[in-house]
Automatic annotation (TrEMBL):
One of its GO terms (cellular component) is cytochrome complex. It comes from Leifsonia tongyongensis. PANTHER family: CYTOCHROME BD-I UBIQUINOL OXIDASE SUBUNIT 2, CYTOCHROME BD2 SUBUNIT II. Keywords: Cell membrane, Electron transport, Heme, Iron, Membrane, Metal-binding, Transmembrane, Transmembrane helix, Transport. Pfam families: Cyt_bd_oxida_II. The chain crosses the membrane at residues 6-32, 53-71, 77-98, 119-142, 162-183, 195-213, 219-240, 247-269, 296-319. Belongs to the cytochrome ubiquinol oxidase subunit 2 family. It is found in: Cell membrane. GO terms for molecular function: electron transfer activity; metal ion binding; oxidoreductase activity, acting on diphenols and related substances as donors, oxygen as acceptor. This is Cytochrome d ubiquinol oxidase subunit II.
Length: 338
């Protein structure tokens, strides 16, 4: 296989892993005000992702590193043109990570409320802006002959891109709520199932609108097939949640996000950064590294990527147990109740 094509799909696979795994992290964070009746509930929710959230974010680091090494022109254009949007995502991720570590350092309720708010914002901002960014990439942006972005941040906030951002936000929110129902027991589990049923309906409508708009504006057979698979998986996830099958619901939500991301990459191919003027578009050919670089990267990926996947799978297996309010130390529960 042509190494440029191989690495295009490896990068796509890394973003699939990131959005599927960090997606439910974002959803859990955004759901804190909706499911957390008190601090104990919020502690239970945060503990469901506590052992894995930072490991999930490493997929973004690896994806960015591979993008830089395999497609330096794509990396340069993306990170310079979308600088403010990506900076906001970075700041939100930092705020969220800091809040996970610091919210429990003091028993004061205002202290915890402040960091809980940062978790919500730090989860919602990336969930929205990643959708905005990828929708703009699919739609095409203003690039000059040197592949420099010539638009502004407000140009990126167009109706199509905002609908893409709303789609990812709702999908991640529902993904996270389903994960809470999968990882908890008792009253919070039931409340999570009911919330997933309501948010799932909204996600289905918004996602259908976005995929339909994309299909009409950028039709391709591959995109249409993959988008239909994503749509069917989303409906099946909602049905499974109604039946109380949290495991199946979570699996179908993961497949929804995975096939939606693959559909967007399939719609891009062979471009990596379409321009409003097609002559200025970046493709897998004019954006890639040398064959020697791609060869070295391929052998490295062959050795280390399976190890990363195995280690992460082992981590999820170790922390597979459901959590409840009884899982929170009694002194924490007592102080929250008081």
């Amino acid at each position: 296989m042509d190494l440029t094509i191989l690495w295009f799909w490896i990068v796509a696979g890394l973003f699939v892993g990131y959005f599927v795994l960090d997606g439910f992290d974002f959803g859990v964070g955004m759901a804190l005000p909706f499911l957390g009746k008190d601090d104990v509930d919020r502690r239970v929710m945060i503990n469901t992702i506590g052992p894995v959230w930072d490991l999930n974010e490493t997929w973004l680091i690896v994806a960015g590193a591979c993008l830089f090494a395999a497609f330096p022109e794509w990396y340069a254009t993306l990170f310079s043109g979308f600088y403010l949007a990506l900076l906001l995502i970075l700041l939100a991720l930092i705020a969220r990570g800091v809040s996970f570590e610091y919210r429990h350092q003091r028993p004061d309720s205002r202290w915890k409320a402040w960091f809980d708010g940062m978790i919500v914002v730090g989860s919602a901002v990336p969930a929205l802006l990643w959708g905005v960014a990828f929708a703009n990439i699919v739609q095409g942006v203003a690039l000059d002959a040197h592949h420099n972005y010539t638009g502004t941040l407000f140009d990126l906030l167009n109706p199509y891109a905002l609908l893409g951002g709303l789609t990812t936000l709702l999908l991640f929110f529902t993904h996270g709520v389903v994960f809470v129902s999968l990882k908890t027991e008792g009253d919070i589990r039931e409340r999570a199932r009911r919330l997933a049923s309501r948010s799932g309906v909204i996600a289905i409508v918004v996602a259908a609108a976005f995929l339909l708009w994309t299909g009409i504006a950028h039709f391709s057979v591959g995109f249409t097939i993959l988008a239909l698979i994503a749509a069917v998986a989303l409906v099946l996830s909602w049905v499974a949640n109604l039946r109380g099958a949290e495991g199946w619901s979570f699996l179908f939500m993961a497949l929804t996000i995975a096939f939606a991301v693959i559909a967007l990459f399939a719609n891009l191919f062979p471009n990596v950064m379409p321009a409003t003027d097609p002559a200025n578009s970046l493709t897998i050919r004019n954006a890639s590294s040398t064959p020697y670089t791609l060869t070295v990267m391929s052998w490295t990926a062959l050795v280390f990527l399976p190890l990363v996947v195995l280690y992460q799978g082992w981590t999820y297996w170790i922390f597979r147990k459901r959590l409840s309010r009884a899982s929170i130390p009694s002194d924490v529960a007592h102080s929250a109740a008081g």
